[in-house]
Amino acid sequence: MKSEHGSGARLGSGPEISIEGRLPVLIGAVLLVFGIFVLRLFQLQILQGEELAGIAQGNAVRLVRLEAPRGDILDREGRVLAATRPAFGVSVLPSDLHSPDRTTAALGMLLDTESAALRERIGTPRGRRRFRPVRLVADLPFDHWGRVESHRFELPGVLTDVRPRRHYVEGELAAHLLGTIGEISADQLRAAARTDYRSGEVIGQSGIEGLFESHLRGRAGGRNVVVDVAGRVVGDPLDEREPAPGGSVTLTIDRDLQRVAEEGFVPEVLGEPGKRGALVALDPRTGDVLALVSKPSFDPNAFAGGIDTETWQGLANDDWRPLQNRAVAGQYPPGSIYKPILAAAALADGVVTPHDRFFCPGHFRLGRRVYRCWRRGGHGEVDLRDALQQSCDVYFYQLGLQLGIDRLSDFARAFQLGRTTGFPVGDEKPGLVPTRSWKQRRFSEPWQKGETVSASIGQGFSLVTPIQMAVAYAAIANGGVILEPRVVRERVSRDGEVIVTGDPVVRDHLPVAPEYLEVLRDALEAVVAEPRGTGTAARIPGVRVAGKTGTAQVVRLKHTEDLEEGEIPVRHRDHAWFVGFAPVDAPEIVVVALVEHGGHGGSAAAPIAGKVMQRYFEKQRRDLEPALAAAEDTDAGG
Hints:
By secondary structure, the chain is an alpha+beta fold. Strand 2 (73-74) and strand 3 form a beta hairpin.
């Protein structure tokens, strides 16, 4: 029994001897690790402390701004007119270029461009500039950019990036309305001192882009990175906030009507210069602008990436002023499209009745001065309807003298002439409604009766803009309501809030009885519908169209009175006008077309306006077809 007990005691002592044997090894390992740590600490704090402290002090956190896409601009049916697309760029970091010449030679082959030009852009930067990227190309075709991206490992110092860039989907289409973007100026930067705008930032400068800059502008994102004393990025970004796109703007413009309107100014013969002028299409029920054209125009994409000096000077110094928005800032003598305004004034004041007749022998004598009618042989006996239909000058000479310049001016202002219409886009001009007092102030001379004769047919000192005439004729069409023209249908903020344009803005009412406006509408329909009318080129099958042609004299050319139009220098030819609305019984669209130096309104401007109205009604029929088909199916089933 002892033997067994003793044996058990010896076996139990084995493990105790093993642990005691390993303990010194464990203690030694701990001391070794601790010693290494102390030595490393000694190295970092004592031997390299000064050097590492300098490096740490040189590092800093820098916020890298991430540009935000601008919001879309859409037409009334939600089709994109201006958007943001990716712009593929290539830059180089000079400090990392092993051989600038070899790198630019390789890039030149990949980009199909001259390597010498790339090398020149890099230059020979020194100091800290060596660590700042040099942008070589800002907007590459994707396939070219892809070539560089696929060879980046063979091209140390070459950087690729993708940035948002404004894109106008259809180039020149509605350019003056959409507007331009460009780098913020010093004055603009000072005015925006309390906002987060920065030097070099691109902002809306004109048109819708400028008017709704704060809405279309996105919210920039940012990336915090560590940079060393030379400005080089050290390690991965600390954090990042994604940029937020700007809000969208939906316009009242119809892209289809805008296209047809602009096509009307395209030259009929290839190689000839395009027609110059303007067009405004307006809904007389709401004031919605359905199309707005100014020609010549420009491509706003040229401004999207920063316009070059040569292109800018070409636009700014062009004699035909392509940057001017003629629809709202072009001021022209109205010619015969002014006659309905005189007719409305004479009817309202009781100067004439619709049935009073005047004789037109082809000329009118005032003292020793003879004023001619456009038809040399005269129109014979005419009443108000005949005079408007055939645009008889002699009838309106007499009507104007009976009414007098003061009342004519009063009524012109009632039609909103001589003042801006309230259209929000562009540098709108007020035109000019001449008065006795105006002439005395301007020329220190009294008003003459002969000047009333000229004013009666829209000549002399009178000046109007196309959009003013659209508003004036909309009032004739809609029963006398002066509406403020509008171009924005709704906005959607970047947070999703929908801001809808409110009810039409009524600025005034015409001081003309409804029955007299009906007389005018009937006479204006005869201008287009009847054989002797001057506006037959604006007819639309199946639609009752009313309108008025105008031929506005630019320069008095006695020596060219018997010349054919083609023999008169272009700058001396008359401006051609047409204003029309349809359908006559319940007008939905008013169109004003002006062709600068186009000659006769009936042949130059009426066809353009007619095509726009025709396209409008084609779309209306197309939109009604499903409902009509459904109604027919219901009737058949019943």
